[in-house]
């Protein structure tokens, strides 16, 4: 597979995983966790998400074959996110607050989906009730909290598993360190974050893009 096809496969996995039915990532061992402690960790994770106003971080996106792409993620709540991939990758994933766009500059195509139809809605959609649709899953590591978010009434919205690390200096005392998606074709995508910066100034035009289909600025 050449680099451009590989790039499109890896980057596209992030979008496809955000739009299709996913296989469960939870473990039956969750039932053994004390209910009060589980609810406390879940509430803490939700509070940490809501405490993020803006964030910038480096990311590494890994597909099921171990192929990786790197870039910079910029987040601004509510609803805005941008995955700016490394130099030479003609792909952009960006949300302007209402829709998630997948932009392929090489073939001049743009695909758009409502945020609510994506598990990234757990990060972006202010109306998504993470406490209602989320559940704690065992991480097997002290200081690590994993939350699976799934709307069982709408399996087409997909699933995302958010991983937090307890960190006093992070918003809400927990730092979002990674998330994982698994689509109906067992295509797993993992996004790992590093060098998180919070409260940075992010202008709204960060979440616009040059439309490759014409001169219109999105």
Structure, explained:
- By secondary structure, the chain is an alpha+beta fold.
- The chain contains 4 helices and 11 strands, in the order H-H-E-E-E-E-E-E-H-H-E-E-E-E-E.
- An 11-stranded antiparallel beta sheet has the order 6-5-4-3-2-1-11-10-9-8-7.
- A hairpin with a 6-residue loop joins strand 7 and strand 8.
- The radius of gyration is 17 Å and the shape is globular.
Main sheet: which strands, in order across?
A: 6-5-4-3-2-1-11-10-9-8-7
- Structural class given helices, strands, pairing? alpha+beta
As a whole number of angstroms, the C-alpha radius of gyration is: 17 Å
* Count of extended strands: 11
Tell me the helix content: 10-25%
Mean of pLDDT: 75
Alpha-carbon distance between the two ends: 31 Å
Counting DSSP H or I runs of 4 or more residues, the number of helices is: 4
Instruction: Profile the largest sheet.
Output: 11 strands, antiparallel
* Range of strand content: 35-45%
Overall morphology = globular
Order of helices and strands: HHEEEEEEHHEEEEE
Poorly predicted residue ranges = 12-34
Provide a compact summary of the structure:
The chain is an alpha+beta fold.
Which tags fit this structure?
11 strands; alpha+beta; 18% helix; globular; 218 residues; 4 helices; 11-stranded antiparallel β-sheet
